[in-house]
Amino acid sequence: MSGDQKQIVRPYGDTTGDGMVQVSFTLPVSHDKRAEGAAVQLANRMGMDPAMVVHAKPMGDGFTFFVVYGRVNHLVDLTAVQVVERDFPLLSAKDVNTVVKQRLRRKLSVVGACIGTDAHTVGIDAILNVKGIAGEKGLEYYRELKVTNLGAQVSVPELVEAARAERADAVLVSQVVTQRDAHLHNTREMSAAFREAMPAGRRPLLIVGGPRFDETMTDELGVDRIFGRGTTPGEVASYLVHALITQRKATA
Ligand code: B12
């Protein structure tokens, strides 16, 4: 953090430090004056005062979507913010290939899938497919990585079996749907299955990703790393090298 940056901050809307924020939500009521009043009441109870409905749109029968703009008095203490910082160096594809070739002396095997009923494959494909994302090629592009992408709606037993057959060094799971915490349940089921099926030391690195994961939950979910929205293939490849080769050798 730079020296002149404040430690305590508050939101900025029209003028510095005015505390103005904007939130959106849907209420199960038809759109009328009373519905807008209900939205303001909710915003007030959330600590926004004054609060103003700046957008309201009927969402089918009996539902209204709102955008509310208003002031909060809450402060943010930047020194108390907890996040997972990247604790490994970002490597180029060339460097990843070189380290794997020289130090592992075989291809590094990666098995990926969307598990449970989740069919949102765009995220895992962005990480694995050659096409990649954000101008970066996916892991299939890396000469020294062997990628097996199982696709959508893979069951946990199928995933464990594929990881065994491919002698996976790492298993990459994507979970996008979060309804009823499906992403958390599925991830716990997956990590428990790997722990049961394989002894410690033989277990592949377990990595999950998706836009709504809390990256600090690795221990609770029994995984080695969580990647959130905006992840790029280069970050994942660099982490694989760090966790499976560089760090492992250093601590061995
Ligand atoms: C495309 C899409 C679909 C497509 C999926 C096509 C496909 N082959 O993937 C289709 C139309 C099939 C679909 C269906 C459904 N969808 Co949909 N869908 C989306 C949408 C519009 C975009 C998702 C996407 O592709 N993002 C782009 C990728 C690149 O981003 P990403 O997934 O976040 O991935 C990045 C990171 O998260 C990370 N990452 C992700 N996974 C992994 C894994 C690893 C290992 C790593 C390292 C990193 C990583 O890296 C990626 C690259 O940066 C979202 C809304 C939105 N705008 O996000 C809704 C959304 C995800 N869908 C939603 C829903 C509800 C559904 C349905 C249930 C709808 C229905 N009633 O039928 C079905 C469920 C189908 C199923 N069985 O899963 C909801 C989920 C809500 C929730 N709370 O869970 C969303 C949020 C829409 C909404 N606002 O309601 N959907």
TrEMBL record:
Residues 107-251 form the B12-binding domain. It comes from the Bacteria. GO terms for molecular function: cobalamin binding; metal ion binding; protein dimerization activity. PROSITE patterns: B12_BINDING. Pfam families: B12-binding, OAM_dimer. This is Lysine 2,3-aminomutase. The lineage of its organism: Bacteria, Bacillati, Actinomycetota, Actinomycetes, Micromonosporales.
